[in-house]
DNA sequence: TATTTTCGAAACGCTATCGTTTCGGAACGC
DNA sequence: GCGTTCCGAAACGATAGCGTTTCGAAAATA
């Protein structure tokens, strides 16, 4: 690895810029995000920003990748227990004003920028999704869910209603909703002849 | 009713402005929507726009109210038939690039403006929701669904996954998804002891 | 006909953001 | 110590949207 001459780029500035970008998306959304504001808030010259990223989009893509939400990876012994624990973590995200604003701010950006859409899908959304997928697959392996279960469909049946209520209907994004979605998936994918075993409630 | 003196306001201009606002939200989204562009495209002076609406937000709220999507109100005799027909209409909306762009353009606006959020909820989203609610309630009256069914939850279990896939995962918003969501609701809300009767498929 | 109001079009001054450039100084390799 | 590169800060000209105002013409009432 050759070492370039001259002063090396400041790691602190780099991280401060990414951190500030996320903070500002939370506060004002993606569309209202300006390079001037990022540089000023990060205590950095604009030239320093443009030296590293050629556009706002490129900066945001990298910043999104840096959001590493703490997603649990539970193994309670039952699909219902695992899924509900993951759903509670998602409820907490929607309940946190900062995270919620970030999400709604990114939705508009996703619709207009494919790179940003991919970053969100493989980033913090993808992490949650992967954890839920593992919980479902363990449930299938245990025989709690049918082997032919459409996992992608099941995932969207659980994540979708929360997102929909949060962004569109404005209805409560609460435990009852999470429970209803999980129960619907468990009942729909229950092995033939098995009776449901609602240990946490029944739904809808 | 007294008649004001002077030249009356042009109904044509009024409607052209509202129509153009919708068209431009589809094309560029809400954030990039400008009064100059609306006036120019509508063939109208900016003063004419500002004479009627004091802000872009007020204009958009009224324009949203004018979107009267043709929502079917089916009565096929079964909850499954009715719901699937409504879901197919929703699929068609997502499949239409114009409507889809409009929806994603409005999501960002809803997050930042409560009047706009209300207009969307009571407007074209509310119409679809009301039709689905009627289908569910007929199903309850017929005994296809339990009387204690949480109708609001059931509605969100069906609408949410489509919205989620469309905006976030980018997965297919197709018949299989609609069917999976409807089947999950029907199974979850089936009366005790009844066997499901999947006439259109099984899911997930 | 006289008066009033709206019409489309254009220009106004103002502010904000863009991406670039310049500046003196600081941090590195050689 | 020298050359190079990056640093934060500031200013640059350009573009764009804001909301308002002005203009002569058109459309209504009285």
Element layout with pairings:
The structure is a homodimer of 204-residue chains.
Chain A: H1 11-28, H2 35-42, H3 46-52, H4 56-65, H5 79-95, H6 97-112, H7 114-122, H8 124-142, H9 151-169, H10 175-188
Helix pairs in contact in A: 1-2, 1-4, 1-6, 4-7, 5-8, 5-10, 6-7, 8-9, 9-10
The structure holds a DNA duplex (30 and 30 nucleotides).
**Hey, which two chains have the biggest interface?**
A-B, 47 and 48 residues
Q: Specify the helix fraction band of chain A.
A: 55-70%
Strand content of chain A: under 5%
The helix/strand class of chain A is mainly alpha
Whole-Å distance between the termini of chain A?
Answer: 60 Å
Question: How many strand segments of chain A?
Answer: 0
Largest β-sheet summary of chain A: none
How many helices of chain A? 10
Assembly state of the chains shown: homodimer
Summed over residues and divided by their number, the pLDDT of chain A gives a mean of: 90
Question: Low-confidence segments of chain A, ≥5 residues, pLDDT <50?
Answer: 197-202
Order of helices and strands of chain A: HHHHHHHHHH
- Shape by Cα distribution of chain A: elongated
Q: What's the gyration radius of chain A in Å? A: 21 Å
Walk me through this protein's architecture.
- Two copies of one chain form a homodimer.
- The termini of chain A are far apart.
- With 204 residues, the first copy, chain A, is mostly helical.
- In chain A, 67% of the residues lie in helices and 0% in strands.
- In chain A, α1 crosses α4, α5 packs antiparallel against α8 and α9 packs antiparallel against α10.
- Chain A has ten helices and no strands.
- The longest helix of chain A is centred in the middle third of the chain and has 19 residues.
- At the A-B interface, α6, α7, α9 and α10 of A face α6, α7, α9 and α10 of B.
- Chain A binds a DNA duplex (30 and 30 nucleotides) through α2 and α3.
